[in-house]
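Predict structure. Input: Outer membrane efflux protein, 469 residues.
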Amino acid sequence: MKLNPASMYRIAVVLVLSSIVRPALAQEKHAFTVLQAVDYAKKNSVQVKNLLLDVQLQTETNRQVTANAYPQLSGRVGATYNPNIAVQSFPDFISLATYGVLQKKGVVDGAGNPITVPDDIGLIQAQFGTKWLANAGLDLSQILFDGQVFVGLQARSTSMEWARKNVEVTEELIKANVYKVYYQLVASRTQISLLDANIDRLQKLQHDTHEMYKNGFAEKLDVDKVDVQIANLQTEKKRVENQIANGNLGLKLLMGMPMKDELMLTDTLSDAQIKGGVLEASNYNYSDRKEMQYAELGRKLNQYNIKRYNLSQLPTVSLSGSVSKNAQRNEFNFFNKGDWYTFSNINLNISVPIFKGFYTRSKIAEAKLNLQKTENQIENLKLSIDNEVETARINFNTAMEAMNYQRQNMTLAESVYDQTKKKYESGLGSNTEITAAQTDLKAAQTNYINALYDAIVAKVDYMKAIGKL
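Output follows.
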């Protein structure tokens, strides 16, 4: 079969597009520890990205403040056309001068009388200027003293720290959430392992019970009960696997990871790991909290604001100068030969604020009130930190006690199940006893998994509360 040129062209286009689209849709695989997951979230979270843009915006704002302290240079060029040159009236100084000369020479009129200046010699009209005017020049100005500009320059570094600290506060919150979700998924993975172990136990029990039934030592009801228990555990495993899949998607969303990418969690979880590092971090300072550092920078900025308005009451001093050239023509021929006249000036400008309708006083009072609000918020934040630390410490201690107890209880339940199974296989126990032992074991395992996750959350909350996460 022959392909016509149009068909070959369409095939070529499809191949080219496929080569472009396939890499874009490629699935990436990520195997992360919890610290790597946190680093990924910091780099890819939309919240953090926007706050980093705020840092860049603050950088540009600082540049604008700095620009006010630099010399300001501007150029100008212009041309003016006067279709009708203005006419001006003024005393007839020519006639006046003529009469003066005649009087001085003693000239007399026809009647022999001396010449005298009339009381009203009248006005004459004349046009001054040309049809075309052109000018070009440079203007330069420099602030010598402006209190508000100087305070703005002093506040630049604090403004940048304030913007960066806002990023750190959000990163801390994201870090805590990533820790919780990550270890929740790890704990769920432990739950899957326990369910698999239970299924293995019951499948072995199923085999043994079936053999006993074939030999007449068990009833068909006993076999059915074991089958029901296995089906329940398999259903439970599917439910937990579905929770893990949904939790994995939630973790990707929190980290800013594409949903099509594959995420594997490489960390494991143990009781010792949960207990580790808590005693070493038992002491805390308010300054360890990112929120407190952020609030302190806010207070510093409010203090700069008060200083800015106070200094706005002082005179401002600036130096300015200009140099220009102008030309006058009756025709538009400025680019031809002709005279251009230069003039220049240098000015010292002092502006003294005298009265603004109490505006400045109001702004100072407003800034002081905002500072007071910030100080109240800082004091309230200290109370909140104290409350968070104490609550988190109590919750952590309670969670650790519960986890230790539930682990012991799970170990005991496993032992009870093994002993009950041996009794059942020896013909000394009933199916009811082994069913009850299996139910107790599953309940103990579920309680342990819940206690394990509660301990994880309690530790994350405690470490965050003391600023050591």
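The chain has eleven helices and eight strands.
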